[in-house]
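Form 7-S
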Amino acid sequence: MSINDIKNMQRRIGVTDDGFWGPKSIAACQAHLRKLMPAKHPWPKSDQANLTKFYGKPGDESQLATIGVEGLGILYDGKPVRAIRCHQKVAISLKRVLTAISKGPHKAVLGEYAGCFNNRPMRGGSLPSLHARGAAVDLDPDHNGNGTSWPTRAIMPLEVMEEFAKEGWLAAGAFWGRDSMHLQATQ
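Output:
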């Protein structure tokens, strides 16, 4: 993001718009997103015990639902996506978020969809990824990769993160400072 983009975002989250993304901006951004989340958080904590209790075993395809997304502008490798398989508990929420994004000024991120359900471990580890439960989605990986610092290098719009936050989803970029393509249904 440009310095002006960062300054605009700082104004949006209520901190001094100096263009420096440091501890105060990070904390304010996280607080801003948490304020948008439902009062009663709908998703589990991200430890394996809570994830298994809520979502079931990773890789269990019987827990998946298919949501229709035709017409939302979602593309995978340049080809239209008609349906997404995700955990049945996140299906309605994910559909609402994707629909809202498709109607907004940042709908272009949907043109770079990179997946939801994928029965695999976390990158660089052995524990199951949230993708193995169908409770995470990746958008625009070319500009928001795992090793790319957000928002100084990665460009995931705060407004996209806000749409997910309204449904209680965690935006990795804002909460981890990297991997801003990744959004997950956890606390």
